[in-house]
Amino acid sequence: MCLALAGCNLTGSETTVSLELPGAPEHWPESLTVEEYRVVWRGGAGKLREITVAGGASRVEVAIPKRSGVAVLAYPSFVGGSFLPRPAAAIYPHDARGGAGAGVNLAASFERGFTGLVLHRVLFALPSVNSGRLIEEVRARSDGNPWLFDLERVVEKLADGRFSTIYLRPRDVFEVEVAVAVAGEGRAAAGAQIGAGAAVNAGKGSGPGVWIRDNPLARVLAPTDSPDGPMLRLKLPPGHHHLIHAGNGGILSIVVADDGSYRVFHR
């Protein structure tokens, strides 16, 4: 099913919308609060626009092209900018409240983040995109977590006009284990390479409490017991992944290679 050339454009040039900012994901601990948003969208002729908004704000007004599929991305920042999860998004006019015109509200959500980022990257490079169909196909095929799709491949196939829903398939995932140090223990050398099934200390004093992934749709993680102490067990696709300790702000970065080997960094 081809989506790239089956869309439509709305008439007019620009419209001012009130973007409802999402706050932190509802299933995250209350100790994690948004400190700042980076709001990004494309204006006329696809020109990149960006503003910074205080984390306590509930909404911000932006002027966007009156074109179906225009995405406004909201990147929340935590812990002094050291933890930057994947964005929330609102897509015009599909996430509009109050009608498609002046005074319209757009509600940004993390559920829209993947599709919004795809449209942000390809919309102005194509004559038309069926954004409504793309939204529905991503929702229907993602099992609630579209960040498991191959973002770069979806963007590439849409951009060259050869996209099909067969590309909306989850990537392979690999088992990753990270031993979480308890308060007062030492830590392994940062950046040491380890293979699938191995483990490295997360860092002194990080503790066995709750960990949050940079995928805002993923579940909160708690370590499980093992002979080597508390252990985080994850299933991750290839790429870069970041986690934050909800109690003290410790950061883990995990780089998973295509063959399933991985490296763990901590700070």
Report on this structure.
With 267 residues, the chain is mainly beta. The protein folds into two domains: 14-167, Immunoglobulin-like; 174-266, Immunoglobulin-like (Sandwich), CATH 2.60.40. The protein has helices spanning 113-122, 131-141, 151-159; strands spanning 14-20, 36-42, 48-54, 59-65, 71-77, 88-91, 96-97, 104-107, 174-179, 193-194, 211-213, 231-236, 239-245, 251-256, 262-266. The strands form four sheets. It has a five-stranded antiparallel β-sheet with strand order 10-15-14-13-11, with no helix packed on it. It has a four-stranded mixed β-sheet with strand order 4-1-8-7, with no helix packed on it. A hairpin with a 5-residue loop joins β14 and β15. Residues 4-9 and 182-207 have low confidence and may be disordered.
How would you concisely characterize the structure shown here?
This protein has three helices and 15 strands. By secondary structure, the chain is mainly beta.
Topology at a glance:
Elements: E1 14-20, E2 36-42, E3 48-54, E4 59-65, E5 71-77, E6 88-91, E7 96-97, E8 104-107, H1 113-122, H2 131-141, H3 151-159, E9 174-179, E10 193-194, E11 211-213, E12 231-236, E13 239-245, E14 251-256, E15 262-266
Parallel strand pairs: 1-8
Antiparallel strand pairs: 1-4, 2-3, 2-5, 5-6, 7-8, 9-12, 10-15, 11-13, 13-14, 14-15
Helix pairs in contact: 1-3
